[in-house]
Amino acid sequence: MEIKDLTSQIKKNLIFIAIITLVASSVGFSSTKFLKSGYQQQTQLFVKVQDKNTLSENSPRVDSSNLTDTTVAILQSPDFASGADLGESQLEVRKMAPQVIRITVTAKNKDVSSQTSTKVIYSYNEKIKNLVPQANIELVGVGIPNDPTRQVLNSKIMAAFGASLGFIASLSILALAKYLKL
Q1: CA distance 33 to 74
Q2: SS3 for 52?
Q3: CA 88: distance to chain centroid?
Q4: Cα distance from N-terminal residue to C-terminal residue, the chain
C-alpha cells in the first residue's frame, strides 16, 4: 500500500475519524467528573481489643480477625457515614492485616481531610463502646498519618488522551476494513 493510497483513504473517511476522535475525547473529559478528586489522607489503624485475661466470665469473647472484618463493615456502612457527619468527604476502608486497617479520606480541602480522619476514629470508638461496652475495643493510630496529598485528574489531559485513543482506534478500524475488504 502506497502513501498516496493511504492519504486518499484517510481523506475519504475524515468525518468518521473526526466523529470517533471527538466521542473518545468527550468520554475522557467527562470521566474526570465521576472519579474522586481532592485531598487524600491515609491513616493506618490498629484494632485494639482488651486483654482476654481481664475479661470476666460473663463478657463476650471477641475474635480479633473477625473483629477487623466487622470494623471495616461498620466503617463502610452508610449509617456510620451519616452518624459521623462526614459531609462531602469520601471514606474508603481497607483491611491490611488481621488487626490492621487503612482508612483513606478524600475531601476538597486539606484541613477537612485531616479533621475528617480524626472524626472517623473518634466516632467509631464512641459507637463501638455503645454497641459492646464490655469488650473495650478501639481504633488506635499506628505511626503518624501522612500529610494530605492532592489527588486530581486533569480534564484537559484526559480529553487529549481520549482523543489520541479515538484517533488510533478509528485508523485501526479503517485498516481492518481495508484489509478485510469490507
Answers
A1: 28
A2: helix
A3: 14
A4: 16
User: What phi and psi, each to the nearest 5 degrees, are found at residue 84?
Assistant: -85, -5
H-type alpha helices, the chain: 3-12, 14-34, 64-76, 78-83, 110-131, 155-179
The pTM score is 0.62
Q: Is the model more confident about 60 or about 79?
A: 79
Q: CA 143 to CA 63: how far, in whole Å? A: 24
Report pLDDT for 52. 54
Rg over alpha carbons for the chain, rounded to the nearest Å, is 26
Q: Which residue has the higher pLDDT, 137 or 173?
A: 173
Bridge partners of residue 134, in order along the sequence: none
Q: Give me the pLDDT at residue 70, please.
A: 82
Q: Which three cell numbers stand for residue 27?
A: 468520554
Asked whether the predicted pLDDT for residue 42 surpasses 90, the reply is no
- Residues near 68 by Cβ (< 8 Å), separated by ≥ 6? 47, 95, 97, 98, 99, 100, 101
Distance of CA 161 to the CA centre of its chain: 21
Environment class of residue 45 by beta-carbon count within 10 Å: exposed (0-12), middle (13-18) or buried (19+)? buried
Quote the cell numbers at residue 99: 488487626
Cβ neighbors of 23 (< 8 A, separation 6 or more) are 166
